[in-house]
Amino acid sequence: MARRENSEINAGSMADIAFLLLIFFLVTTTMDVDSGISRKLPEKSEDTPEVVIKEKNILDIVVNRNNQILVEGDRQVQVTDIKRIAMDFIDNGGGLSAPKDGKPGEPCDYCKGAKDPSSSDHPSKAIISLQSDRGTTYGMYISIQNEIEAAYNELRNRLALQKYKRSYKDLLRDYKDSGSKKIKEKIDFLKESYPQIISEPEPIK
Amino acid sequence: MSKFKKKKKGLPAISTASLPDIVFMLLFFFMVSTTMRETDLLLQPIKFPSATEVKKLEHKSLVSTIYVGKSKDARISGDKIQVNDKIIDVKDIPSFIFSERALRKEEEVKYMTTSIKADKEANVGTILDIKEQLRDINALKVSFSTKGTNIRSNY
Predict the structure, then answer these.
(1) Are A122 and B26 in contact (CB under 8 A)?
(2) Among all residues of chain B, which has the CA nearest to that of A132?
(3) A153-174 pLDDT tens trace
(4) Where are the annotated coiled coils located (chain A) (predicted)?
């Protein structure tokens, strides 16, 4: 008897099915990862005590509806200047920090600023106030937020490199990978050294 | 007739058995690397602002998204707010967040983030109104969606 040859199974339709599934996924899904500037809104509380803040500890940034930026009420600047101005202001270290846990205030020993007595006392006291007009475009608003964020990140980064020989970004990544407590402490220390205090007063009508 | 059969003429068919394997490989790649599209946008396509200091939004299931942009209908001016396939008023945002919260476990509520996807031409006033509403109901974690790194394109 002659040996019958093994006939092959036709797998052509299998490819069709797979293609169908593939096309379905191509159409219904998106590839992009969502990323953005994250912010924590201030909590709403009825009985906030009136705090007296010295004028020199506030960096006033005002944006009008023509997307013009005014710093400290008299200087018109470009968005790209804000990072520099914010860094100089936060890092000034002209005075003492706020007394904490009964300890008296200390001068900022890690600041490298000009120590100008007319600018902010200490990073923990420096407040950036961003007032915008209702008609300001969102793109401009995000740019300014981005520049302020960049100023804080650069300062934290500088301190991180000096103290831990690692950049702030690397520390954050390491923490995400390992979740170790030690790295968390370092990050918390950096965040505490340059705390982000941004206030957004009511917009100009 | 000779003992040796003459070979059939013509080429044998090329085996396509490995084609499905390749397509399946592609399929799995797309299944793993993509996410389902959640909503149909009723607004004009959003042009995101750019930023360099961005954070990736993690835990997709804990994110509720608010879209802000112009209406597709050119006659309607001003910013429109869209959530879940419908255009709503600023005043309806708390109820939207509450309905989102109701779907999550209680211990997860404090990790919930609101992602604001707004067009770069939108007015800050609208965004501030949304932020005010979110503050009122203690939904404090927000993320302003951005794309790209060239901040000069923002204005």
Answers:
(1) no
(2) B124
(3) 888 898 888 888 888 888 888 8
(4) none
- Counting the structural domains of chain B, the total is 1
Asked if the Cβ–Cβ distance from B140 to A25 is below 8 Å, we say: no
Q: Which residues of B49-68 are buried (b: 16+ CB within 10 A; e: fewer)?
A: bbbbbbeebeeeebbbbbbb
Bridge partner residues of B43 (DSSP)? B71
User: ipTM of this model?
Assistant: 0.75
Neighbours of A69 (CB within 10 A): 23
In B, which residues are within 8 Å of A31 by CB distance? Answer: 33-34
Determine, for residues A33 and B56 on separate chains, whether the beta-carbon distance falls below 8 Å: yes
**Overall pTM surpassing 0.80 (yes/no):** no
- Domain range for B121: 50-152
Amino acid (one-letter) located at B34: T
CATH of the domain at B90: 3.30.420.270
Query: Does the residue B106 lie in any domain?
Result: yes
User: How many contacts, defined by CB atoms under 8 Å, are there between A and B?
Assistant: 177
* Shortest CA gap A104–chain B (Å): 33
Chosen for mutation from B48, B130, B146 (greatest number of chain A CBs closer than 10 Å) is B146
Determine, yes or no, domain membership for B71.
Answer: yes
What are B29-44's pLDDT values in tens digits?
888 877 776 677 788 8
Cα A160 from Cα A154, distance rounded (Å): 10
Chain B 101-120, residues with CB within 8 Å of chain A CB atoms: 113, 115, 118-120
